Fold this protein.
Amino acid sequence: MKLNVISVFCIVTAAALLGMGLGAAFGYFAGKTSPGLFTHFIAWARLDPVPTALIMGMAIGTLLGGMLGVFGIIIQTIREAMAKQKGPSGQDRR
């Protein structure tokens, strides 16, 4: 797969959006099943646990999804460099 700026941007954006969706789902269900867990994060304010867990899940999911997309691009770049280093016959060209 040829990596250019547009494909890298699309891969990382799609991974971040997928992470945001999964994080939001996790946060929503975590806020519904254990509301007492999220009241301790901000002790000085009374917050509704479901929206707090939803926002926290979306934020962390976006960060983790984007990082996973970047990691995948790094691995793809390394594999392309290793394949280029080997010749068409599959032997090292060192």
Observations:
- The two ends are 24 Å apart (CA to CA).
- Helices lie at 5-33, 49-85.
